[in-house]
Design brief:
This protein is an alpha/beta fold. The protein has 2 domains: about 1-50, no CATH class; about 60-274, HAD superfamily/HAD-like (Rossmann fold, 3-Layer(aba) Sandwich), CATH 3.40.50. The chain is built from 12 helices and 10 strands. The longest helix is centred in the middle third of the chain and has 12 residues, at about 90-100. It is elongated and about 65 Å long.
């Protein structure tokens, strides 16, 4: 607390009262006199091993959770793992990385990667899901707690329904939106069905949910999540690419997805474990 207070004071702010949300793990430190961006930058520079969320002291509990999937709810990029079964992981992963950093057009990059999978047996999708897809730490608790508190939940992914469907169902999402790979005679055609789920879709799904934007929590990791992160009342970049981390209201770099519950001032005793 002292280090954070000193950093805020050094940036021109006036630190105030402190309180623990969960002793030793999550705390509130009030500050006045500086804007949110300045406060975030000051504390992040002083305390690189903690996660910083700068927000109002009121109305923190959210009524909508909208989340990306790959590298956010799950610990991999599914298209990269699929490509590994075809011996093309390095090539595809390089395109994925460039797209998630905002260096390539998302749709064009998706089409280019999927084209490389043409001819793959559709059974590989299920094999890949079982062998490679693992939930991020805290994913179950985050979603179960939000659902238990009456929030709506949307999984919206630029990845594929073959993965998003099972992942979203397992976690208990109300709505699941993802891209569909076209299949003919049991093999991938190398084409993604239109319309493509992209950054515009993610933002549109958030708005269409009908929940006041201030009451929406969005989480993602890549450049295609930025419009969604910027539109939500609280946009959190999770172990994210630099562009997404810079655009979001906060960036979780140290903790797991349960940090999104602390960001809403929800203490551990109120979490729902699944």
């Amino acid at each position: 607390m002292t280090t954070a207070s000193d950093a805020l004071r050094g940036a021109g702010g006036e630190p105030g009262a402190t309180r623990w949300i969960d002793a030793g793990d999550a705390a509130d430190l009030s500050v006045t006199g500086i804007d949110r961006a300045t406060a975030r930058a000051a504390v992040e520079a002083a305390l690189t091993a903690i996660d910083v969320v700068v927000q109002s002291v009121t109305d923190r509990a959210k009524r909508l959770l909208i989340a990306d999937m790959d590298s956010t709810l799950i610990a991999c990029e599914c298209i990269d793992e699929l490509a590994d079964y075809a011996g093309l992981k390095a090539e595809v992963a390089a395109i994925t990385d460039a797209a998630m950093n905002g260096h390539l057009d998302f749709v064009a990059a998706l089409d280019a990667r999927v084209a490389l999978l043409a001819g793959m047996d559709v059974g590989v999708l299920e094999r890949c899901r079982v062998e490679r897809v693992r939930l991020m730490p805290g994913a179950r608790t985050l979603v179960a707690t939000m659902v238990g508190r009456g929030a709506r939940t949307i999984l919206v992914s630029g990845g594929f329904t073959a993965f998003a469907g099972p992942v979203g169902t397992t976690l208990g999402f109300d709505r699941i939106v993802a891209n569909r790979l076209l299949v003919v005679d049991g093999r991938l055609t190398g084409i993604v069905a239109r319309p493509v789920v992209d950054s515009g879709t993610k933002r549109a799904e958030l708005i269409a949910a009908g929940v006041p934007l201030a009451a929406c929590l969005a989480v993602g990791d890549g450049a295609n999540d930025i419009p969604m992160l910027e539109t939500a009342g609280l946009g959190i970049a999770y172990h994210a690419k630099p562009a997404a981390a810079a655009a979001a209201d906060a960036a979780v770099r140290a903790g797991d997805l349960r940090a999104l519950l602390w960001a809403q001032s929800i203490p551990r005793r109120a979490w729902v474990t699944a």
